[in-house]
Design brief:
The protein is α+β, with helices and mostly antiparallel strands and 374 residues long. The chain has 2 domains: 4-233, P-loop containing nucleotide triphosphate hydrolases (Rossmann fold); 242-363, OB fold (Dihydrolipoamide Acetyltransferase, E2P). The protein has helices at 46-54, 96-107, 112-126, 141-154, 171-188, 199-205, 223-228, 233-238, 267-272; strands spanning 4-13, 20-30, 35-39, 61-66, 69-70, 81-84, 159-163, 191-196, 208-213, 216-221, 245-251, 255-258, 261-264, 279-284, 290-292, 301-303, 307-310, 314-321, 324-331, 342-345, 352-355, 361-363. The two termini are 37 Å apart. Bound molecules: adenosine-5'-triphosphate.
Length: 374
C-alpha cells in the first residue's frame, strides 16, 4: 500500500511581512502504485511539495496522510518513504555497497547477511553488481544515480520520492534511464512521486502529471489530457514542445480578427462562442498548423518564414503575425525557405480559446481518439 493524501497542504517560508508561499493549499491524492510527476517552472514549489511529503520540511498548514494514517508530524525516518536526490547524496568515503546498506543498518534490526542479500538483489536490479566495491568518486554520474536508486530500493518503502534524479546526466543517458526507471517502477509497483521541470520527462514518464505554478495546482491529469484538454493558458503553454502559439483575437460573431489576419468561424463554432466575451486568446499548437498550396483555401494565412530549423524528420518554421512570434512544425520532407512566402491554415478543430483575463480555457481542440490499426 502507498496512497498519499495531501489535504490543504501549505508551506510558507520566511518571516511575517516577507513570506514566500512555496506551496499554497494543495489537495491531491496520489494512488497506490501510481507514477505521478510534479512538473512546473523553476520556483513553482515542486521540491518543497516533495520535501514536505518526505518530512524534510515542516508544513505550515494542512495534513499529509499515508494509507489513512496522518504522518504530518512524523519524523522522516518513520515515514517508510525513500527519497532520491538530483545530486545523488552518496557518502563519498563509503563504497557503493556500504552506501546501499547504510540506511538499513541505521533503521532496521536486520542482520548483516540479510542486508547483504537485499543489497545484492537491488544491485542486480540496477545492473551495478560489479561496482559494489567502488566509492562514488570512482563512478560516473549515471552509475552514482543507480547506487542512489539501489539505496532507495533496498529499503522497500511504500513510496519513492524522486527530485529531478536524471537532470545531472547527459541527454542520451537520461533517455535510457527514463525508460529503465519506468520499467523498475512497474516491476516494483511502488507509488512514486517524481519531480521535474522538463515537460517531456513528465509526458513520457507519468501515469498522471500535476502541473504546478506559483505553488498552486493548475491541472492534474494524464499526459494526454493535459496536452489535449489544458485547463488554462499556463498548462497549454507549458505542456507540449515547441510551446503552443498564442494570439489575441476579437470575435464579431462570425469572424475572429487579429491585427494580421481574419478567421471565419463555422456556424457551429460561431454559435458556441456567442455567449463568450468578444476578446480572447487563440491557441494553436505548432504541430497543428498546416501548410497549404492554395492561397484561396478557406482561412489561409500568408506568412513569411523568418527562421527555419530542420531537425531531420521535422522542420520548425518560425514566423510573425503582427507583433506575435509563432512556430509551425512541418514535415522535414517539405523544402521551406526563409523569405519565400507560404500559406498556412489553423484547422478549426485544432484551435484552443482562452479567456484573455483569467487564462481559463473556453474551448479546447477536438481531437479524434483513434484505435490502434490492426
Ligand atoms: P526548482 O525547479 O528551481 O528547484 P521548485 O519548483 O522545486 O524549483 P521550490 O524549490 O519548491 O521550487 O521553491 C518554491 C519557492 O520557495 C521558491 O520561491 C523558493 O525560492 C522558495 N524556497 C524554497 N526553499 C526555501 C527555503 N528554505 N527558504 C526560503 N525560501 C525557500
Amino acid at each position: 500500500m502507498g496512497q498519499i493524501d495531501l489535504r490543504g497542504m501549505t508551506k510558507v517560508f520566511g518571516e511575517r511581512g516577507s513570506e514566500i508561499i512555496a506551496v499554497d493549499d494543495i489537495d491531491l491524492t496520489i494512488e497506490d502504485g501510481e507514477f505521478l510527476v510534479l512538473v512546473g517552472p523553476s520556483g513553482c514549489g515542486k521540491s518543497t511539495t516533495l520535501r514536505c511529503i518526505a518530512g524534510l520540511e515542516e508544513v505550515t498548514h494542512g495534513d499529509i496522510v499515508l494509507d489513512g494514517t496522518d504522518i504530518t508530524d512524523e519524523k522522516p525516518k518513520n515515514r517508510n518513504i525513500a527519497m532520491v536526490f538530483q545530486n545523488y547524496a552518496l557518502y563519498p568515503h563509503m563504497t557503493a555497497e556500504e552506501n546501499m546498506a547504510f540506511g538499513l543498518k541505521m533503521t532496521t534490526d536486520l542482520g548483516e547477511d540479510e542486508i547483504s542479500v537485499k543489497v545484492q538483489e537491488a544491485a542486480e536490479m540496477m545492473g551495478i553488481q560489479d561496482l559494489l566495491d567502488d566509492k562514488p568518486g570512482e563512478l560516473s554520474g549515471g552509475q552514482q544515480q543507480r547506487v542512489a536508486l539501489g539505496r532507495a530500493i533496498v529499503r522497500e518503502p511504500e513510496v519513492f520520492l524522486m527530485d529531478e534524479p536524471l537532470s545531472n546526466l547527459d541527454a542520451k543517458l537520461r533517455t535510457t534511464m527514463r525508460t529503465e526507471l519506468q520499467d523498475l517502477q512497474q516491476r516494483l509497483d511502488t507509488t512514486t512521486v517524481y519531480v521535474t521541470h522538463d515537460q517531456t520527462e513528465a509526458m513520457t514518464m507519468g501515469d498522471r502529471i500535476v502541473v504546478l505554478n506559483e505553488g498552486t495546482i493548475q491541472q492534474v491529469g494524464t499526459p494526454l489530457e493535459c496536452y489535449q484538454q489544458p485547463n488554462n493558458k499556463f498548462v497549454a503553454g507549458f505542456i507540449g514542445s515547441p510551446s503552443m502559439n498564442f494570439v489575441d483575437v476579437v470575435n464579431d460573431g462570425q469572424v475572429l480578427t487579429h491585427e494580421a489576419f481574419t478567421y471565419e468561424l463555422s456556424d457551429a463554432m460561431a454559435s458556441e462562442l456567442q455567449d463568450v466575451d468578444d476578446a480572447f486568446v487563440l491557441g494553436i499548437r505548432p504541430e497543428d498548423i498546416r501548410i497549404t498550396n492554395e492561397a484561396n483555401d478557406h482561412n489561409a494565412i500568408r506568412i513569411e518564414p523568418t527562421v527555419v530549423e530542420p531537425v531531420g524528420d521535422l522542420t520548425y518554421v518560425h514566423f510573425e503575425l503582427g507583433d506575435t512570434q509563432l512556430t509551425a512544425t512541418v514535415s522535414g520532407d517539405v523544402p521551406i525557405q526563409i523569405g519565400t512566402d507560404l500559406e498556412v491554415i489553423f484547422p478549426e478543430d485544432r484551435i484552443h480559446l482562452f479567456d484573455s483575463e483569467t487564462g481559463e480555457a473556453i474551448k479546447n481542440s477536438q481531437r479524434e481518439v483513434r484505435s490502434v490499426p490492426s
